[in-house]
Design a protein that fits this description.
Largest sheet of chain A: none
Order of helices and strands of chain B: EEEHEEHEHHHEHEHEEHH
Helix content of chain A: over 70%
Number of domains of chain B: 1
CATH class of chain B: Alpha Beta
Oligomer: heterodimer
Structural class of chain A: mainly alpha
Distance between the termini of chain B: 53 Å
Order of helices and strands of chain A: HHHHHHHHHHHHHHHHHHHHHH
Strand content of chain A: under 5%
Distance between the termini of chain A: 35 Å
Number of helices of chain B: 9
CATH superfamily of chain B: P-loop containing nucleotide triphosphate hydrolases
Number of domains of chain A: 2
Helix content of chain B: 25-40%
Number of helices of chain A: 22
CATH topology of chain B: Rossmann fold
Largest interface: A-B, 50 and 52 residues
Radius of gyration of chain B: 18 Å
Shape of chain A: globular
Number of strands of chain B: 10
Number of strands of chain A: 0
Amino acid sequence: MLLDGPLRCEPSTGSERMVGVFATLKLRLLRNLLRTESGVPFVVFSIISLGFGGLLAFILLEREASDGVLPLGAATVVIAWTFGPLLFGAADETIDSTRLALFPVPARQLAPGMVVANLIGPGPVAIALPFGAAALGANTLVGKAVALLAAAATVVLASVLSRWVQTLLGSALRKRSRRDLVIVVAGLFAGILGIGSQVLVVIGFSSDRLAQFGRVARWFPGGWTGWAIQSVQTASSVTDYLVPLGAISATALFTIFAAQRWIIALENALAEVADGGVDEVATGHFMDSVGFRGWVFGQLGVYGPVLAKELRYLKRHPRYRVQVVTQFIVLILGGAPFLAAILQKDPTSVLVACVPALTAGITASNLLGADGRALWGEVLAVDSMVVILRGRSLAFFGLGVGSSVLVILLTATYTGGWNFALIAFAASVGMGFAGAGTGAYTSTLAPVLLPDESNPNPFASGDMGQGCVSGIFTLGGAAVGLTTSAPILAGLGFARTELWAQLAVIVIAPVYGFAVYVVATRLAARRADQRVPYLIATLT
Amino acid sequence: MTDAAVAIRSLYKRFGPKLAVNDLNLWVPKGTFFGLVGPNGAGKSTTLKIATGLLRPDSGDVWVSGRDVWANPRGVKEIIGVVPEDLRLFERLTGQEMLEYVGLLRGFDRTMSRQRAGELLEIMDLSEAAGRLVLDYSTGMRKKVALGAAILHKPSVLFLDEPFESVDPLSVRTLRAILSQLVNNGATVVFSSHVMEVVERLCDHVAVVNAGTVVAGGETRTVCAGRRLEDVFADAVGRPAEVRTLDWL
């Protein structure tokens, strides 16, 4: 039968054929996603994104976009599409060079299919809707056609840039040193975004400001075509179309250039995909049984080994390092909402230096994910999800409070607000515990990131779109952490001026936070206990 | 080099401080069932990755059926099949979909891809699981579907890294039958394994790799010379055959 059949057929893997193959693959992957644990979150994400895109499209059909909106929107889409996967860990199997490397298909033939696959899904449709609506708003048929061309050029550019960046990442991230460099760059990028949003809040936001940003954005990739769509809205003569068509041509040329560079990078990636092997050497004993740290672990009893292991992972595991670096960079730089107050040497700004402790909640939201394959070992050895969840989240508590202490020291040194340092520290402990507890609970709700440890890209999940869904849960977890910390934050508000509030925060905040931690981890364990068989079956 | 299925000359590969492959030379005759054995960390998997164009060597040459792997990796990938150790499969496709997809990537039309996928699933006793996601497959099923993906295009040389690990005896029998059929039809099978009995029973040629180099090799009966392969292996890697014990256990 099979093996007695004809010899290999001659390869007939043209680019057009690959487009069909990849489009089919992507549709099947999306359909099959509905059969997994991520199915419901994926549907929710799809409804929200399509609803939002549809709403924007409806608004743009009803009224003309304000000056600057389209260039700014298009540039934002291109940047977000390009770098989004880097920050949110969304990757899919259609672009994984480690899977495609076994096949004798040249990168030049794979590339069109991979771009098309990238354009299929609720996210791209949600993005295309408002641009399509804006294009249809042009007052002539030619204008509509030119604007649609510009909209298409925008999404194709975004897709090509996205694939290029991810392919480069896949190659660059084989070594720990390069991985960490990329993580820091990504963190800084996110930090800049965070600071940018703070700046916007400080300087205010108006239609004039929007127009100013739009004028800047139109010089960036994507902004060109956004500006072209905007320009043709009221075009009436042939000359009115020349500059927009020039912008579209420039985008097309830039896309071709990016595609050529990407294909070269992809060809290299397909030629060598195996993991680089040894690139890190660990030293020391697991529990560091001598010294202060060993003493601390000893006092923690059964939680000690779990915490010790988690701290090792924070250092060694790419996903954890992403979380740690993001925590420090994003939240210390971008998450300092009272940056202005600090710069004005307001001593009470020390109080808000406790906010980074809340990041314990963000990082703890993926407690079961990063080393999921090893979960069975802990389950067998400890047989208590309370211990596992508390031990693991304690590591994030330490990180969150540690970063707060650092910020408290720096802020107090700079502003001279040392008399607020103890209050801020107590609040940090309370908020750290509250965040760690609620994060642990979120980790039992969120889809666990399917480990993809042989993939050198630490941002990739083994499951298409899972990183994005998990990211949404993480943000939700952070919101819950913030809510449970509200009493502490309220106390801090009064503590700026009232002595009774300062004393109350010092005494009550750690106790309150610890109580939240105990209750939340207990509830989380109840949920996790029910989920353990599924988790172990999925992850191991 | 044209009379060898695989020829490797003076191969080196270093990972940081570790020299994984150290002046490795290997000659795999065409139409043979070739076993690559060695202790953990000996360099077997690294050698197979280099030979299949998945990892670039620091230096050295590799030819597969007369084609230089690193001068023409695509040409080599056309004629080889690979079942890697880490089995990175398309988890979110069903078994049927995955094999069809592999067929399409290999240049088959849809009808042929579907037909071969169906036949492979049937011969591997996976017909009932054809509609299940690969993610939900057991280890043995994953090995079988991975082997299916590797032989769907009827390769001239098939590389398998630990193909029988974690596979139940019945599945091993199925896999062995398929591999034997491939060899009988003129293909060459190269596989690494820790299971000496399997290598001894299946392979007509064998090479023992230790510390990144081949320390013994040739026809299995010549290499064994009437002894068990396990003893030959223990001698070749320089370790005593007797097993140490733990006093406290």
